[in-house]
Amino acid sequence: MYAAITHRGALRAVASRAPAATPRARLRAALLLRWREAQRSAAMNMPAGTVKRGRA
């Protein structure tokens, strides 16, 4: 985050922020998460939904 001065001289705070995710990107991320979880549980011979996602 940094302060920026507009052409009129007003002080404005500017934060570097990721662009808002589109519904399609959100769906893709959710599917990837499910797929990754299914792969992990299959590798451990366990039913999906019983393996923790990400960090404990």
What does it look like?
The model has no long low-confidence stretch (mean pLDDT 76). Strand 1 and strand 2 form a beta hairpin. The protein is an alpha+beta fold and 56 residues long. It has one helix at 23-43, and strands spanning 2-5, 11-14. It has a two-stranded antiparallel ribbon. The two termini are 30 Å apart. The chain is built from one helix and two strands, in the order ββα.
Distance, first to last CA: 30 Å
* Classification by helices and strands: alpha+beta
Strand content: 5-15%
Detail the poorly predicted runs.
none
The rounded Rg comes to: 21 Å
Distinct helical segment count:
1
Shape: rod-shaped
Major sheet: size, sense and barrel closure?
A: 2 strands, antiparallel
Helix content: 25-40%
Count of DSSP strands = 2
Mean pLDDT: 76
Written as H for each helix and E for each strand, in order along the chain, the element string is EEH
Side by side, the strands of the main sheet go 1-2
List keywords for this structure.
single chain; 56 residues; alpha+beta; two-stranded antiparallel sheet
In short:
38% of the residues lie in helices and 14% in strands.
